């Protein structure tokens, strides 16, 4: 059974700092890994999707990496802004259509 | 519509009552998913529809939970004899085909269910 762990559970940084969020998973037989953002009272917004054959994806100030063999992914956020404050969720798609999520990292960027 | 919509946004009910939660997926999306998110947890898969049929209902916790998608568009999640442990945010998502491993799932804002 796939298990997804996200560390840290919460992170508070000053504006402008670069930061890394971590995601680990137990079963390396995955199709893809996705990073989502969740704002309070709102649904999830997909940020980046990395296919199993890829090593990284970039979108603006976000960069996500995938090391399937070690069961790890990182989400790098450059030059953080207060608007980046949200909960970031990592999700794995394995041998079925369902996504398996971690518990998330709650990020607070202080002005 | 532009995105996935869910109604109601909030539902408060009493233990033992029946509730229905509705999801309107993005137009043209054949795949539809239901997830449940408890406080402090990530979303957990409940059921996946491909068209009108439930292709995977392995996440439904027990037979009190049932979902339908009769015309391959709108879906309703039905919970009988609600229990306090059913309190959570119920999220719906849709994707274009569901069969491609590169499909992004687009999520709705969720329905917050509170069982008193």
Oligomer: heterodimer
Q: How far apart are the termini of chain A? A: 41 Å
Please tally the β strands of chain A and state the result. 11
Q: How does the overall form of chain A come out from the CA principal axes?
A: globular
> How many helical stretches of chain A?
0
Low-confidence stretches of chain B: none
Q: How much β-strand is present in the residues of chain A?
A: over 45%
| Percent helix range of chain A | under 10%
Could you give the order of the helices and strands of chain A? EEEEEEEEEEE
Could you please describe the fold and organization of this structure?
The complex is a heterodimer of chains A (111) and B (116). Chain A is mainly beta and 111 residues long. Chain A is 0% helix and 58% strand. Chain A has strands spanning 4-7, 10-14, 19-25, 32-38, 44-51, 56-59, 62-67, 72-77, 86-93, 99-101, 105-110. In chain A, strands 2, 4, 5, 9, 10 and 11 form a six-stranded mixed sheet that branches. Chain A has a five-stranded antiparallel sheet with strand order 1-3-8-7-6, with no helix packed on it. In chain A, strand 4 and strand 5 form a beta hairpin. The model of chain A has no long low-confidence stretch (mean pLDDT 94). With 116 residues, chain B is mainly beta. Chain B is built from no helices and eleven strands. Chain B has strands at 5-7, 10-13, 19-24, 31-37, 44-50, 53-56, 65-68, 75-79, 88-95, 106-107, 111-115. In chain B, the strands form two sheets. In chain B, strands 2, 4, 5, 6, 9, 10 and 11 form a seven-stranded mixed sheet that branches. Chain B has a four-stranded antiparallel sheet with strand order 1-3-8-7, with no helix packed on it. Chain B is globular and about 40 Å long. The termini of chain B are far apart. The chains are: A mainly beta (111), B mainly beta (116). Chain A binds chain B through residues 4, 31-32, 34, 36, 41-46, 49, 51-52, 89, 91, 93, 96-104, and chain B through 4, 31, 33, 35, 40-45, 48, 50, 55-56, 58-59, 91, 93, 98, 101-102, 104-110.
């Amino acid at each position: 059974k796939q298990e997804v762990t996200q560390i840290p559970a919460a992170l508070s940084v000053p504006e402008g700092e670069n930061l890394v969020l971590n995601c680990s998973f137990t079963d390396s037989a995955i199709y893809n890994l996705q990073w989502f953002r969740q704002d309070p009272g709102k649904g999830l917004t997909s940020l980046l999707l990395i296919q199993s054959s890829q090593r990284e994806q970039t979108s603006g100030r976000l960069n996500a990496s995938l090391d399937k063999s070690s069961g790890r992914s990182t989400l790098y956020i450059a030059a953080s802004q207060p608007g980046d404050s949200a909960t970031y969720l990592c999700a794995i798609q394995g041998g079925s259509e369902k996504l398996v999520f971690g518990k998330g990292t709650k990020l607070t960027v202080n002005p | 519509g532009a995105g996935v919509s869910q109604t109601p946004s909030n539902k408060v009910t009493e233990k033992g009552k029946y509730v229905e939660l509705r999801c309107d997926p993005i137009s043209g999306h054949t795949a539809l998913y239901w997830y449940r998110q408890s406080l402090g947890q990530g979303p957990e898969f409940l059921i996946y529809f491909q068209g009108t049929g439930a292709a995977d209902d392995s996440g439904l916790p027990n037979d009190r939970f049932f979902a339908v998608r009769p015309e391959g568009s709108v879906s309703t999640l039905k919970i009988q004899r609600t229990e306090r442990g059913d309190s959570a945010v119920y999220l719906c998502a849709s994707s274009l085909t569901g069969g491609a491993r590169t499909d992004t799932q687009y999520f709705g804002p969720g329905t917050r269910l509170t069982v008193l």
